[in-house]
């Protein structure tokens, strides 16, 4: 009797967690938030390095906002960066928009993205700030959606979920599947169990006063997970964090290989392990792939073990499809459902590898991660301030 039941007991944590994330997701996305008529002036800070997939359209989507007053500050470290001509084209295409380009290579710490944010922040005009990754594209109501919650003075930061609706190959599909089958369900469960205590780097809107209370961007410059730290520090400073139910779009490179995607996943995994070691280690209990393999192993690959593994993946497929079709609306599933076990196997491998090392590679630099998430750049100078400058708008702009 025990031998027949044991495979189902092995898969019970993963099964229970899948059902729990579905409950959390239904509760969250069932809300129909009414946006208050609150539209304060906002400065959008865009740290940029290199060219992403369709960078022009990504940047242009922020210029097409149905919003009364906003500013966009692009920050680039090198005057030879190939993204600068694209930013110039955006500035020419939207002459009435308040756009500015700052080029400054000053190094204030090992996180060069935060260095760029420090330079952009110096040019920000307004008390509400938005930090958004360069590969993100948004709809015309984005600013109204993320700024409306600040009508409540207790809200210090609003962060957004993200998805990828257009994928051009199996490498991109494997990464995009992670959003609907792992990332968003995990955020939903964390929101239900402990409330929102962190931010997601794709989109973060925050009060300048909250940023100043935690020490500004210099407080983040030694951390790789600057988004997590920004949200967590603002939370610990006494502000409430809000999760926007409106998605932003992560635009992917169509030509990425599975190896390149997994290298990025490993960097994220090791970053989260040093930031939240207990929670990250415990997350291994809910991973479906090792649970399915364990069920087969303890049963000696009997019919009971096969049935337990099949039940687990039936539930897994149903939950992931509901997230994809009903919640994210990313149109990934069921087309790419056959890749879900592959994604799960790779995720387990990334989780296991992330427990074994402290080195990550990011934007061509090798870093060592110390306890608490601080980083040490092992491949480039850590100090020095080359002269920076602000590039003026194109001729004829105000």
Can you give me a brief rundown of this structure?
This protein has helices at 2-29, 55-63, 84-93, 112-121, 142-147, 170-194, 208-213, 226-236, 258-275, 277-282, 288-298, 303-328, 340-354, and strands at 42-47, 70-76, 98-103, 128-132, 136-137, 155-163, 203-207, 240-250, 359-362, 365-369, 375-377, 389-391. With 398 residues, it is an alpha/beta fold.
Strand content of the residues, in percent?
15-25%
The overall pLDDT average reads: 90
- The strand count comes to 12
Extract low-pLDDT stretches.
Answer: 381-398
Largest sheet: 9 strands, mixed
Question: How many helices does DSSP assign?
Answer: 13
Q: Helical proportion?
A: 40-55%
Main sheet: strand order: 5-8-6-7-4-1-2-3-12
Task: Describe the 3D structure.
- This protein is of the alpha/beta class and 398 residues long.
- It is built from 13 helices and 12 strands.
- Strands 5-8-6-7-4-1-2-3-12 form a 9-stranded mixed beta sheet, with helices on both faces.
- The protein is globular.
- The model is unreliable at 381-398 (pLDDT under 50).
Draw up the topology in text:
Elements: H1 2-29, E1 42-47, H2 55-63, E2 70-76, H3 84-93, E3 98-103, H4 112-121, E4 128-132, E5 136-137, H5 142-147, E6 155-163, H6 170-194, E7 203-207, H7 208-213, H8 226-236, E8 240-250, H9 258-275, H10 277-282, H11 288-298, H12 303-328, H13 340-354, E9 359-362, E10 365-369, E11 375-377, E12 389-391
Parallel strand pairs: 1-2, 1-4, 2-3, 6-8
Antiparallel strand pairs: 3-12, 4-7, 5-8, 6-7, 9-10, 10-11
Helix pairs in contact: 1-6, 1-11, 1-12, 2-3, 6-9, 6-12, 9-13, 11-12
